Amino acid sequence: MRRREQREHVFKLMFMTEFNSEEEMTEQLSLYFEGLGELSEQDQEYMKKKYAHVKEHLEEIDAQLNSASRGWKTKRMSRVDLAALRLAVYEMEYDADVPTGVAINEAVELAKRFGGDASGSFVNGVLGKIASEKDEKKNEEETADTEEKAAEAPEENA
């Protein structure tokens, strides 16, 4: 199974989380994977792990989403948009195997496919803001590191 397909299944699991309690999700996960039919153990394990990792970081992810989306706190967002955003932010922040651009593009495509008319542009806007802030922070850290190294270097004219 390709990564895109796996990502779509994790997205669907994140969406299901919005309608089921933690206890119910254990059974829902089993039923979901049963419903997929023939599925390699490797694919199933990858999807379960990714789902669990997103859930693990949900508090931090939601804080980032609340900060980046003006006037749209996670509680007010469409559940489809929220599932796509959560998965993308997880990939951008915690999954080094997924480039930021890929995470954004895949989330936008999921939002367009499963969400409302404005879902794609909404998801793109929120994730674009998060990506910009991430780039700014990285540039600031690199500048600080460079300045620190320059300050530590012995003067050449001494």
Description:
With 158 residues, the chain is mainly α. It has a single domain, classed as Orthogonal Bundle (N-utilizing Substance Protein B Homolog, Chain A), CATH 1.10.940. Helix content is 77%, strand content 0%. It contains seven helices and no strands. It has helices spanning 3-17, 22-35, 41-56, 58-68, 79-94, 100-114, 119-152. The termini are far apart. The mean pLDDT is 90.
User: How do the SSEs run, as a string of H and E?
Assistant: HHHHHHH
Compute the number of structural domains. Answer: 1
Mean pLDDT: 90
The general outline is globular
Summarize the amount of helix as a percent range: over 70%
Within CATH, the superfamily carries the name: NusB-like
Query: What's the total helix number?
Result: 7
Q: Separation of termini? A: 62 Å
Low-confidence stretches: none
CATH topology: N-utilizing Substance Protein B Homolog, Chain A
The beta-strand count equals 0
Write down the CATH class.
Mainly Alpha
> Beta-sheet strand percentage?
under 5%
CATH architecture: Orthogonal Bundle
Radius of gyration: 19 Å
The main pleated sheet reads as: none
> Helix/strand-derived class?
mainly alpha
